[in-house]
Amino acid sequence: MPRSVNSVASRARRKKVLKQAKGFFGRRKNVWTVAKNAVEKAMAYSYRDRKQKKRNFRALWIMRINAGARLHGMSYSQFMGKVKAAGIELNRKVLADLAMNHPEAFAAIVNQVK
After folding, report:
1. Which of 43, 65, 93, 113 has the fewest CB atoms within 10 Å around its CB?
2. Under CATH, which architecture does the 8-113 domain have?
3. Left (φ > 0), alpha (ψ -120 to 50) or beta: where does 53 sit?
């Protein structure tokens, strides 16, 4: 009995990977072996960086809150400790937005926790 290779499924698998490689440069977009490796690497990076994006944004928010708090003579850790003690339920994302875009509202929060 002859060997069956199921070229329909193989072609579909290749087409799926080449479709994912759309927009890549050079042979990465249209040569199967190169595109397969490039797509695998891209998927690994995207998985990793979905986690890293959360870390990066938290770090950015902390920097912005720190800058806003230091304008009012407090450090970040002092400010956040007093915010928690005062029972203010604003997260870092909102506090950073207030410090950046609404300094008068942020100043009101600082005065409330002092």
Report:
1. 43
2. Orthogonal Bundle (1.10)
3. alpha
